[in-house]
């Protein structure tokens, strides 16, 4: 592993989110003449990535929550696999959907999520950034509906059936005799997307992530390190 100036940790709801953000980082690196590569070795069983923007090398790690009951474990993961192992500033991106446009992110400051935030602060996370939208990850992907349809080899439908993105995606796949699979099995479809369109039109504020990756920051080591 190389010498890093800082780290970025992603706490994700599921495997499809992991594939999406990994594909976005790959695309964004190409657009900005940066390097985004998988680490050469496992880091205590963890897969990690390295981002080089020409001025610094950033360590990037992913943790999948899976279910709400596992949220608290992400705090332990960050403390043990990130903060304690690498004594440098860390930004943590909490990537989740708010389930409905009727909700804001208030509930993600309560209960297990509140405990997670406390654990992250206790582990000396420099900044905790909410990367949230009132949509699931399939809704974000379907911002580039024409791209998904091109991947499937079908015309863009006038209307999608289904209330949320996952149901819409499943129906879209079924319309051409295919089955939508989440996680790594969706990787080729996700990598075919027009990410610029997603940046421009999706409800996800990817500018927060873009800024963290491309603007070199002078490392600030807290006094209590």
Account of the 3D structure:
The protein is an alpha/beta fold and 225 residues long. Helices cover 38% and strands 17% of the residues. It has helices spanning 15-31, 71-83, 111-122, 137-141, 145-152, 165-174, 187-191, 195-201, 207-214; strands spanning 6-12, 35-38, 48-52, 57-64, 90-97, 127-133. It has a six-stranded mixed beta sheet, with helices on both faces. Helix 3 (111-122) links the parallel strand 5 (90-97) and strand 6. Helix 2 (71-83) runs parallel beside helix 3 (111-122). It is globular and about 50 Å long. Residues 219-225 have low confidence and may be disordered.
Q: Strands, helices and their partners?
A:
Blueprint: E1 6-12, H1 15-31, E2 35-38, E3 48-52, E4 57-64, H2 71-83, E5 90-97, H3 111-122, E6 127-133, H4 137-141, H5 145-152, H6 165-174, H7 187-191, H8 195-201, H9 207-214
Helix pairs in contact: 2-3
Which key features would you list for this structure?
about 220 residues, alpha/beta, 9 helices, 6 strands, about 40% helix, about 15% strand, disordered C terminus
